[in-house]
Amino acid sequence: MAEIVIEDLKKQFGDFVAVTNSSLTIRNGDFFVLLGPSGCGKTTTLRMIAGLEFPTHGKIFLDTEDITFLRASQRNIAFVFQMFALYPHMNVEKNIGFPLKTQGTGRSEIRKRVREVGKLLHLDNLLKSKVSALSGGDKQRVALGRAIIRRPKAFLMDEPLGSLDAEFRESMSFELKKMHNDIDATTVYVTHDQNEAMAMGDRIGIMDKGVMLQADDPLTIYNKPRAKFVGSFIGSPAMNFIDVNAFVQKGSTSVKINGSNLTIPECHEDSNIDFNYLGIRPENIKIVNKGDIRGKVYGVEYLGANKIITVDTEFGRIKVRAPSVINAKFGDNVGLEFDSNSIIIFNGDDETAIKSQFIN
Ligand code: ATP
Protein backbone atom coordinates (compact mmCIF):
# COMPACT_ATOMS: atom_id res chain seq x y z
CA MET A 1 0.00 0.00 0.00
CA ALA A 2 1.30 3.43 -0.85
CA GLU A 3 0.44 7.05 -1.38
CA ILE A 4 0.98 8.50 -4.86
CA VAL A 5 1.46 12.25 -5.14
CA ILE A 6 1.44 14.06 -8.47
CA GLU A 7 2.70 17.63 -8.53
CA ASP A 8 1.97 20.00 -11.40
CA LEU A 9 2.37 17.30 -14.01
CA LYS A 10 2.66 18.16 -17.68
CA LYS A 11 3.23 15.98 -20.75
CA GLN A 12 3.83 17.35 -24.19
CA PHE A 13 4.19 15.31 -27.40
CA GLY A 14 5.90 17.79 -29.74
CA ASP A 15 3.66 20.86 -29.65
CA PHE A 16 0.67 18.91 -28.41
CA VAL A 17 -0.08 19.18 -24.69
CA ALA A 18 -1.67 15.89 -23.57
CA VAL A 19 -1.65 16.57 -19.79
CA THR A 20 -1.18 19.87 -17.99
CA ASN A 21 -1.52 21.44 -14.56
CA SER A 22 -2.32 18.12 -12.93
CA SER A 23 -1.84 17.84 -9.19
CA LEU A 24 -3.31 15.06 -7.14
CA THR A 25 -2.86 12.92 -4.05
CA ILE A 26 -3.93 9.28 -4.28
CA ARG A 27 -4.17 8.15 -0.68
CA ASN A 28 -2.98 4.91 0.86
CA GLY A 29 -5.54 2.22 0.09
CA ASP A 30 -7.63 4.34 -2.29
CA PHE A 31 -9.34 2.83 -5.27
CA PHE A 32 -8.82 5.93 -7.38
CA VAL A 33 -10.56 6.19 -10.73
CA LEU A 34 -9.28 8.45 -13.51
CA LEU A 35 -12.36 9.33 -15.55
CA GLY A 36 -12.88 11.42 -18.67
CA PRO A 37 -13.69 11.33 -22.37
CA SER A 38 -11.48 9.72 -24.97
CA GLY A 39 -8.24 11.63 -25.49
CA CYS A 40 -8.42 13.65 -22.24
CA GLY A 41 -5.06 12.34 -20.99
CA LYS A 42 -6.00 9.49 -18.62
CA THR A 43 -3.70 6.88 -20.13
CA THR A 44 -0.85 9.37 -20.45
CA THR A 45 -1.21 10.22 -16.74
CA LEU A 46 -1.24 6.52 -15.83
CA ARG A 47 1.77 5.82 -18.03
CA MET A 48 3.71 8.59 -16.28
CA ILE A 49 2.88 7.04 -12.89
CA ALA A 50 4.01 3.67 -14.28
CA GLY A 51 7.27 5.04 -15.65
CA LEU A 52 6.34 4.23 -19.26
CA GLU A 53 6.43 7.96 -20.13
CA PHE A 54 8.47 10.68 -18.49
CA PRO A 55 6.78 14.02 -17.78
CA THR A 56 7.76 17.23 -19.54
CA HIS A 57 7.34 18.99 -16.21
CA GLY A 58 6.28 18.17 -12.65
CA LYS A 59 6.98 15.44 -10.13
CA ILE A 60 5.60 12.07 -9.04
CA PHE A 61 6.15 10.61 -5.57
CA LEU A 62 5.51 7.06 -4.36
CA ASP A 63 5.21 7.55 -0.61
CA THR A 64 8.03 10.00 -0.07
CA GLU A 65 10.29 8.71 -2.86
CA ASP A 66 10.63 10.91 -5.94
CA ILE A 67 10.04 8.40 -8.76
CA THR A 68 9.51 10.94 -11.57
CA PHE A 69 12.37 9.71 -13.71
CA LEU A 70 12.76 6.13 -12.47
CA ARG A 71 12.29 3.46 -15.13
CA ALA A 72 9.15 1.30 -14.87
CA SER A 73 11.18 -1.69 -13.68
CA GLN A 74 12.61 0.39 -10.82
CA ARG A 75 9.18 1.31 -9.43
CA ASN A 76 7.34 -1.14 -7.23
CA ILE A 77 4.13 -0.63 -9.20
CA ALA A 78 2.18 -3.17 -11.28
CA PHE A 79 0.46 -2.20 -14.53
CA VAL A 80 -2.53 -4.26 -15.69
CA PHE A 81 -3.21 -3.65 -19.38
CA GLN A 82 -6.52 -3.93 -21.18
CA MET A 83 -4.99 -6.18 -23.82
CA PHE A 84 -3.35 -8.46 -21.29
CA ALA A 85 -0.58 -10.46 -22.87
CA LEU A 86 -0.55 -13.89 -21.30
CA TYR A 87 1.84 -16.62 -22.45
CA PRO A 88 -0.43 -19.00 -24.39
CA HIS A 89 1.95 -21.98 -24.21
CA MET A 90 2.13 -21.84 -20.39
CA ASN A 91 -0.57 -22.97 -18.00
CA VAL A 92 -2.25 -20.67 -15.46
CA GLU A 93 0.18 -21.53 -12.66
CA LYS A 94 3.23 -20.73 -14.79
CA ASN A 95 1.70 -17.49 -16.09
CA ILE A 96 0.96 -16.24 -12.58
CA GLY A 97 4.33 -17.29 -11.22
CA PHE A 98 6.32 -15.84 -14.14
CA PRO A 99 7.18 -12.45 -12.57
CA LEU A 100 8.65 -14.21 -9.51
CA LYS A 101 10.63 -16.59 -11.73
CA THR A 102 12.24 -13.65 -13.54
CA GLN A 103 13.12 -12.18 -10.14
CA GLY A 104 14.90 -15.40 -9.26
CA THR A 105 12.52 -16.45 -6.46
CA GLY A 106 12.85 -20.10 -5.36
CA ARG A 107 10.46 -22.74 -6.74
CA SER A 108 8.75 -23.64 -3.47
CA GLU A 109 8.16 -19.97 -2.64
CA ILE A 110 6.71 -19.41 -6.13
CA ARG A 111 4.41 -22.42 -5.74
CA LYS A 112 3.21 -21.17 -2.33
CA ARG A 113 2.47 -17.68 -3.58
CA VAL A 114 0.77 -18.89 -6.77
CA ARG A 115 -1.52 -21.01 -4.60
CA GLU A 116 -2.34 -18.01 -2.39
CA VAL A 117 -3.11 -15.81 -5.38
CA GLY A 118 -5.07 -18.59 -7.09
CA LYS A 119 -7.26 -18.91 -4.00
CA LEU A 120 -7.82 -15.18 -3.78
CA LEU A 121 -8.90 -14.97 -7.42
CA HIS A 122 -10.88 -18.26 -7.44
CA LEU A 123 -8.46 -19.81 -9.90
CA ASP A 124 -7.49 -22.74 -7.64
CA ASN A 125 -9.13 -25.31 -9.89
CA LEU A 126 -7.66 -23.86 -13.05
CA LEU A 127 -3.98 -23.69 -12.11
CA LYS A 128 -3.05 -26.54 -14.45
CA SER A 129 -5.24 -25.31 -17.35
CA LYS A 130 -3.84 -23.78 -20.52
CA VAL A 131 -4.64 -20.06 -20.68
CA SER A 132 -5.76 -20.41 -24.31
CA ALA A 133 -8.68 -22.55 -23.09
CA LEU A 134 -9.90 -19.97 -20.56
CA SER A 135 -12.87 -17.60 -20.81
CA GLY A 136 -12.22 -13.85 -21.08
CA GLY A 137 -12.97 -13.30 -17.40
CA ASP A 138 -10.63 -16.07 -16.25
CA LYS A 139 -7.88 -14.70 -18.48
CA GLN A 140 -8.43 -11.32 -16.85
CA ARG A 141 -8.06 -12.97 -13.44
CA VAL A 142 -4.81 -14.61 -14.50
CA ALA A 143 -3.53 -11.20 -15.64
CA LEU A 144 -4.48 -9.77 -12.25
CA GLY A 145 -2.85 -12.70 -10.50
CA ARG A 146 0.36 -11.99 -12.35
CA ALA A 147 0.23 -8.39 -11.15
CA ILE A 148 -0.67 -9.25 -7.54
CA ILE A 149 1.95 -11.92 -7.02
CA ARG A 150 4.79 -9.39 -6.99
CA ARG A 151 3.09 -7.66 -4.03
CA PRO A 152 3.62 -4.22 -5.54
CA LYS A 153 2.96 -0.99 -3.66
CA ALA A 154 0.29 0.06 -6.16
CA PHE A 155 -1.72 -1.23 -9.10
CA LEU A 156 -2.37 0.71 -12.28
CA MET A 157 -5.21 -0.49 -14.49
CA ASP A 158 -6.10 0.90 -17.90
CA GLU A 159 -9.69 -0.05 -18.78
CA PRO A 160 -8.99 -3.65 -17.72
CA LEU A 161 -12.61 -4.68 -18.26
CA GLY A 162 -13.00 -2.89 -21.57
CA SER A 163 -13.10 -6.03 -23.69
CA LEU A 164 -15.76 -7.82 -21.61
CA ASP A 165 -19.50 -7.82 -22.28
CA ALA A 166 -21.72 -5.65 -20.07
CA GLU A 167 -23.00 -8.31 -17.67
CA PHE A 168 -19.62 -9.87 -17.10
CA ARG A 169 -18.03 -6.45 -16.77
CA GLU A 170 -20.29 -5.68 -13.85
CA SER A 171 -19.51 -8.87 -11.95
CA MET A 172 -15.77 -8.51 -12.65
CA SER A 173 -15.82 -4.92 -11.45
CA PHE A 174 -17.21 -6.09 -8.08
CA GLU A 175 -14.55 -8.79 -7.89
CA LEU A 176 -11.82 -6.34 -8.72
CA LYS A 177 -12.93 -3.95 -6.01
CA LYS A 178 -13.16 -6.82 -3.52
CA MET A 179 -9.67 -7.96 -4.43
CA HIS A 180 -8.41 -4.40 -3.95
CA ASN A 181 -9.96 -4.36 -0.46
CA ASP A 182 -8.73 -7.87 0.40
CA ILE A 183 -5.11 -7.11 -0.38
CA ASP A 184 -5.22 -3.58 0.99
CA ALA A 185 -3.92 -2.15 -2.26
CA THR A 186 -3.67 1.35 -3.68
CA THR A 187 -5.18 1.24 -7.15
CA VAL A 188 -5.38 3.76 -9.98
CA TYR A 189 -8.00 2.69 -12.48
CA VAL A 190 -8.68 4.35 -15.84
CA THR A 191 -12.12 4.32 -17.43
CA HIS A 192 -14.31 6.51 -19.61
CA ASP A 193 -17.46 4.92 -18.15
CA GLN A 194 -19.06 7.13 -15.50
CA ASN A 195 -21.16 4.27 -14.08
CA GLU A 196 -18.09 2.12 -13.56
CA ALA A 197 -16.30 5.07 -11.96
CA MET A 198 -19.18 5.87 -9.59
CA ALA A 199 -19.61 2.19 -8.64
CA MET A 200 -15.95 1.39 -8.04
CA GLY A 201 -14.14 4.55 -7.04
CA ASP A 202 -13.40 5.58 -3.45
CA ARG A 203 -12.38 8.76 -5.20
CA ILE A 204 -12.70 9.88 -8.79
CA GLY A 205 -10.43 12.27 -10.68
CA ILE A 206 -12.20 13.83 -13.64
CA MET A 207 -10.08 14.99 -16.56
CA ASP A 208 -10.91 17.01 -19.64
CA LYS A 209 -8.51 18.26 -22.31
CA GLY A 210 -5.49 17.21 -20.29
CA VAL A 211 -6.56 18.98 -17.08
CA MET A 212 -7.59 17.34 -13.80
CA LEU A 213 -10.78 19.27 -13.03
CA GLN A 214 -11.78 17.66 -9.73
CA ALA A 215 -10.75 14.77 -7.50
CA ASP A 216 -13.31 13.82 -4.86
CA ASP A 217 -15.49 11.01 -3.58
CA PRO A 218 -18.37 10.03 -5.90
CA LEU A 219 -21.07 11.78 -3.86
CA THR A 220 -19.19 15.09 -3.80
CA ILE A 221 -18.42 14.81 -7.50
CA TYR A 222 -22.13 14.33 -8.16
CA ASN A 223 -23.54 16.94 -5.79
CA LYS A 224 -20.81 19.56 -5.87
CA PRO A 225 -19.18 19.62 -9.29
CA ARG A 226 -16.42 22.20 -9.37
CA ALA A 227 -16.55 22.63 -13.12
CA LYS A 228 -19.40 22.76 -15.60
CA PHE A 229 -17.80 19.85 -17.46
CA VAL A 230 -17.98 17.64 -14.32
CA GLY A 231 -21.71 18.39 -13.92
CA SER A 232 -22.33 17.53 -17.54
CA PHE A 233 -20.14 14.41 -17.70
CA ILE A 234 -21.50 12.80 -14.53
CA GLY A 235 -25.16 11.94 -14.18
CA SER A 236 -27.72 10.67 -16.62
CA PRO A 237 -29.40 12.88 -17.56
CA ALA A 238 -26.66 15.43 -16.99
CA MET A 239 -26.92 18.50 -14.78
CA ASN A 240 -29.07 21.29 -16.27
CA PHE A 241 -27.31 24.58 -17.03
CA ILE A 242 -29.09 27.88 -17.29
CA ASP A 243 -27.47 31.11 -18.44
CA VAL A 244 -27.91 33.82 -15.84
CA ASN A 245 -27.14 37.20 -17.33
CA ALA A 246 -26.43 38.74 -13.98
CA PHE A 247 -23.45 39.77 -11.92
CA VAL A 248 -23.44 37.57 -8.80
CA GLN A 249 -22.31 39.77 -5.96
CA LYS A 250 -20.64 38.87 -2.70
CA GLY A 251 -23.44 38.23 -0.19
CA SER A 252 -26.03 37.57 -2.90
CA THR A 253 -28.67 35.06 -1.98
CA SER A 254 -30.65 35.44 -5.18
CA VAL A 255 -30.29 36.10 -8.88
CA LYS A 256 -32.80 37.80 -11.09
CA ILE A 257 -34.11 35.46 -13.66
CA ASN A 258 -37.09 36.12 -15.88
CA GLY A 259 -37.87 39.28 -13.88
CA SER A 260 -38.15 37.33 -10.63
CA ASN A 261 -35.66 36.62 -7.89
CA LEU A 262 -34.45 33.05 -7.71
CA THR A 263 -32.92 32.04 -4.37
CA ILE A 264 -29.37 30.68 -4.56
CA PRO A 265 -26.90 29.50 -1.89
CA GLU A 266 -25.19 32.56 -0.39
CA CYS A 267 -22.16 33.72 -2.36
CA HIS A 268 -19.08 34.76 -0.38
CA GLU A 269 -17.26 36.27 -3.33
CA ASP A 270 -18.04 38.28 -6.45
CA SER A 271 -18.42 36.32 -9.64
CA ASN A 272 -16.32 39.03 -11.38
CA ILE A 273 -18.31 38.77 -14.56
CA ASP A 274 -21.89 39.41 -15.49
CA PHE A 275 -22.62 36.16 -17.24
CA ASN A 276 -22.78 32.99 -15.22
CA TYR A 277 -24.37 29.61 -15.36
CA LEU A 278 -26.62 28.11 -12.81
CA GLY A 279 -26.37 24.32 -12.55
CA ILE A 280 -29.04 22.08 -11.10
CA ARG A 281 -29.57 18.32 -11.17
CA PRO A 282 -32.86 17.01 -12.67
CA GLU A 283 -33.98 15.51 -9.30
CA ASN A 284 -33.67 18.93 -7.63
CA ILE A 285 -36.40 20.48 -9.75
CA LYS A 286 -40.12 20.04 -9.12
CA ILE A 287 -42.97 20.34 -11.60
CA VAL A 288 -45.45 22.83 -10.09
CA ASN A 289 -48.55 24.71 -11.20
CA LYS A 290 -47.06 28.11 -10.51
CA GLY A 291 -43.37 28.98 -10.76
CA ASP A 292 -41.15 31.70 -12.18
CA ILE A 293 -39.68 29.47 -14.81
CA ARG A 294 -42.32 28.11 -17.09
CA GLY A 295 -42.28 25.99 -20.16
CA LYS A 296 -43.95 23.37 -22.31
CA VAL A 297 -43.45 19.66 -21.83
CA TYR A 298 -41.44 18.37 -24.77
CA GLY A 299 -41.07 14.74 -23.77
CA VAL A 300 -41.65 12.18 -21.01
CA GLU A 301 -39.45 9.10 -20.49
CA TYR A 302 -40.75 6.45 -18.10
CA LEU A 303 -38.01 4.84 -16.03
CA GLY A 304 -40.13 2.77 -13.68
CA ALA A 305 -39.72 4.34 -10.24
CA ASN A 306 -39.50 7.80 -11.76
CA LYS A 307 -39.71 9.60 -15.07
CA ILE A 308 -37.69 12.19 -16.89
CA ILE A 309 -39.78 15.14 -18.03
CA THR A 310 -38.15 17.42 -20.58
CA VAL A 311 -39.46 20.98 -20.53
CA ASP A 312 -38.73 23.61 -23.18
CA THR A 313 -38.27 26.98 -21.48
CA GLU A 314 -36.93 30.34 -22.61
CA PHE A 315 -33.66 29.29 -20.90
CA GLY A 316 -33.38 26.17 -23.00
CA ARG A 317 -34.40 22.57 -22.50
CA ILE A 318 -34.55 21.55 -18.82
CA LYS A 319 -34.78 17.95 -17.62
CA VAL A 320 -36.67 17.09 -14.45
CA ARG A 321 -36.58 13.74 -12.65
CA ALA A 322 -40.08 13.41 -11.21
CA PRO A 323 -41.92 10.66 -9.31
CA SER A 324 -43.81 8.44 -11.74
CA VAL A 325 -47.16 9.60 -10.29
CA ILE A 326 -46.62 13.12 -11.65
CA ASN A 327 -48.91 13.64 -14.57
CA ALA A 328 -47.37 15.58 -17.42
CA LYS A 329 -47.79 15.08 -21.12
CA PHE A 330 -46.47 16.55 -24.32
CA GLY A 331 -47.50 20.19 -24.74
CA ASP A 332 -48.56 20.78 -21.11
CA ASN A 333 -47.71 24.22 -19.76
CA VAL A 334 -45.86 23.68 -16.46
CA GLY A 335 -43.94 25.66 -13.84
CA LEU A 336 -40.57 24.63 -12.43
CA GLU A 337 -39.44 25.02 -8.82
CA PHE A 338 -35.72 24.74 -8.08
CA ASP A 339 -34.35 23.47 -4.77
CA SER A 340 -32.17 26.53 -4.12
CA ASN A 341 -29.76 24.67 -1.81
CA SER A 342 -28.81 22.38 -4.66
CA ILE A 343 -27.96 25.13 -7.14
CA ILE A 344 -24.32 25.58 -8.14
CA ILE A 345 -23.21 28.83 -9.77
CA PHE A 346 -20.55 28.48 -12.45
CA ASN A 347 -18.39 31.32 -13.62
CA GLY A 348 -19.26 31.82 -17.28
CA ASP A 349 -15.71 32.83 -18.10
CA ASP A 350 -13.76 29.67 -17.24
CA GLU A 351 -16.75 27.43 -16.44
CA THR A 352 -15.52 26.60 -12.94
CA ALA A 353 -17.84 26.76 -9.95
CA ILE A 354 -17.64 29.87 -7.79
CA LYS A 355 -15.35 28.59 -5.07
CA SER A 356 -17.06 29.99 -1.99
CA GLN A 357 -19.97 27.62 -2.52
CA PHE A 358 -17.72 24.88 -1.21
CA ILE A 359 -16.98 26.54 2.13
CA ASN A 360 -18.85 24.59 4.80
P1 ATP B 1 -8.56 6.99 -24.43
O1 ATP B 1 -9.63 6.66 -23.47
O2 ATP B 1 -9.07 7.17 -25.83
O3 ATP B 1 -7.36 6.09 -24.35
P2 ATP B 1 -7.11 8.93 -22.88
O4 ATP B 1 -7.87 9.89 -22.03
O5 ATP B 1 -6.49 7.79 -22.19
O6 ATP B 1 -8.05 8.45 -24.06
P3 ATP B 1 -4.49 9.52 -23.82
O7 ATP B 1 -4.25 8.16 -24.42
O8 ATP B 1 -3.79 9.85 -22.58
O9 ATP B 1 -6.04 9.78 -23.65
O10 ATP B 1 -4.12 10.59 -24.93
C1 ATP B 1 -4.24 11.99 -24.71
C2 ATP B 1 -3.88 12.70 -25.98
O11 ATP B 1 -2.47 12.57 -26.21
C3 ATP B 1 -4.58 12.14 -27.21
O12 ATP B 1 -4.94 13.21 -28.05
C4 ATP B 1 -3.51 11.28 -27.86
O13 ATP B 1 -3.69 11.22 -29.25
C5 ATP B 1 -2.24 12.01 -27.49
N1 ATP B 1 -1.08 11.10 -27.39
C6 ATP B 1 -0.96 10.08 -26.53
N2 ATP B 1 0.23 9.46 -26.69
C7 ATP B 1 0.87 10.12 -27.70
C8 ATP B 1 2.14 9.97 -28.34
N3 ATP B 1 3.00 9.02 -27.97
N4 ATP B 1 2.45 10.85 -29.31
C9 ATP B 1 1.59 11.83 -29.67
N5 ATP B 1 0.39 12.04 -29.10
C10 ATP B 1 0.02 11.19 -28.14
UniProtKB/TrEMBL annotation:
Domain of life: Bacteria
UniProt domain ABC transporter: residue ranges: 4-234
SMART domains the record matches: AAA
Pfam families cross-referenced by the UniProt entry: ABC_tran, TOBE_2
SUPFAM superfamilies membership: MOP-like, P-loop containing nucleoside triphosphate hydrolases
InterPro entries the UniProt entry points to: AAA+_ATPase (IPR003593), ABC_transporter-like_ATP-bd (IPR003439), ABC_transporter-like_CS (IPR017871), ABC_transpr_MalK/UgpC-like (IPR047641), Mo/tungstate-bd_C_term_dom (IPR008995), NA-bd_OB-fold (IPR012340), P-loop_NTPase (IPR027417), Transp-assoc_OB_typ2 (IPR013611)
An example molecular function term from Gene Ontology annotations: ABC-type transporter activity
Example of a GO cellular component annotation carried by this entry: ATP-binding cassette (ABC) transporter complex, substrate-binding subunit-containing
Annotated keywords: ATP-binding, Cell membrane, Membrane, Nucleotide-binding, Translocase, Transport
Statement: the UniProt record of this protein carries the keyword Membrane: yes
Protein name in UniProt: ABC transporter ATP-binding protein
Organism: Candidatus Desulfacyla euxinica
